[in-house]
Specification:
Layout lengths: L11 E8 L4 H21 L4 E4 L3 H17 L3 H4 L7 H9 L4 H7 L3 E4 L5 H12 L5 E4 L1 H6 L6 E5 L2 E4 L4 E4 L2 H8 L11 E8 L3 H9 L12 H11 L5 H9 L2 H8 L8 H6 L4 H17 L3 E4 L4 E4 L1 H8 L4 H10 L6 H9 L14 H10 L12 H13 L7 H27 L3 H16 L16 H8 L9 H5 L3 H7 L6 H10 L3 E9 L5 E9 L5 H4 L3 E9 L4 E10 L7
Parallel strand pairs: 1-8, 2-4, 2-5, 3-4, 5-8
Antiparallel strand pairs: 6-7, 9-10, 11-12, 13-14
Amino acid sequence: MCIRDRYRPVPLVQKFVGIIEKNVAKQRDKFNAVCYEHCVKSLKQGNQVMVFVHARNETAKTARALSQLAELNGNTNLFSTVEDPQYDTAARRAEKSRNQIVRELFATGFGCHHAGMLRSDRNLVESLFAQGMIRVLVCTATLAWGVNLPAHTIVIKGTKIYKPEKGGFDELSMLDVMQMFGRAGRPQFDTSGEGIILTTHDKLNYYLAMTNHQMPIESQFTKRLPDNLNAEIVLGTVSNVEEATRWLQYTYFHHRVLKNPLVYGVAYDAQLDDPNLEQYRRSLIKSAAETLHKANMIRYVERSGVLAVTDLGRVASHYYISHETVDMYNRGMHAQMDEAQALGMVSESNEFAQVKVRDEDMKEMDKILAESCKLEVMGGIENVHGKVNALMQAHISRTQIESFSLVSDSNFVNTSSGRLLRALFEISLKRGMSQLAAMFLNLSKCIEHQMWEWQHPLRQLGQLKGELLYKLENPRNGKVLSVERMAEMPGREIGHMLNHPKAGDVVKQAVNRFPKLGLEVTMQPITRTVLRVEVVLTPQFEWQDRVHGSVQPWWIWVEDAENEHLYHTCLLYTSPSPRDS
């Protein structure tokens, strides 16, 4: 499969600019100056411009640099949209944004866009650019891959991109270049598009050659083959090596390896002896199976080729956890873990490998460590694991993060940490480790509800104001009012205890809605070794859809607390009766 220009509905004019300057600071200024020149040229023709950069914090830096150059050269009127009839309406929309940089840049006719911004801010910027209220949009490749938002002129500023897996910078792939160029030209409005690459002079010939030779799209499937194989085993579509070898034959990877075997490390002679590369595919499957077997995600019998799923592999597949992370959990989990060690282990997950430690974030990270982290951050915040750990605790503490890049990192960490903690909870259940399961369940709920375990349970409902929650957690007599105690008290007495008589009924209403179950247990011996346990659960709270949703889940387990042995676990759901609905 190759990317070819003839598929474009609008012709594309491609320009390549090489920067000779070697000094880093002067080179950066030169990139900005050349980028500014192309922006001005396009704007004078009445077109909009997209400038692609390769770091989230670089979007705001580049936009500000271009705005300053426009001011120095007296061209601010080219970028400004103040005279547009819709400007006042657009300005009011921009002022409502919680992102200070979005508000600041809009006044100059610029905008920025990257995956670290809130969805509402990204939608706002996209809408303003589509309306023509933003003349120049500085963005990352996220916009090229995920949003259909074209412009006449596309400028790719620099071709060095950081690759976390390599621990350094690498050249932008031709696939990414063509994807960015794909934003140039609107079939309904433009008769042509313009794509401009700004790179260093030594890489100029490289990108010229790649464009002219029409670079094929190669498969990266083998990098995640163990995880994909585990998913197929869990689904039941693959149960042995032979079936897995046939399954691999239906992938795009197999198509490409037959077309271009040398790229995948297959010798020319090997293809002559085995035209369909069946032995090569079988060797890949066996290697992936051995990797999964070592991580206890499957049972692999080498002699018969049988591939059988395990509880660990099933949990990893359901929660989209990589085999590297599972292997690390196998080595790190133990029954004596505390909360600090648990968060430390989660922060070392392979899913957070792309998080970077930036010098400009260290001042705010120190503040987060001092004010928001209630548990020890093992190893400090100078490394990726410590940063992830601190951001998880900041999320639980509901800390307001100011740094643009830290907001982005925090959003990514928080969306993954809850999923990983839920997976660890199920792994602990499968292993019969009741105390560890309870700890991981509590931590996952801390992430979901943004509250610590020792804070008042009524915080979870989201119905009480901060003043009432503070009084509940900091009573005058030093005795915290538990939900159980308040359930037996009238609202007037609760208000008196909180020194807020009018709030008593409000708190009592929240107590009545707090999920709780009545428990009745009957045990009957069947034989000397078999005991029948009958459990009757009765919901004892007022149902409200806004608080509880359509169903309320409950984990029930029977354990031997002295020996920490789980006899039975199950997940139950309660829902409102027709009368309550």
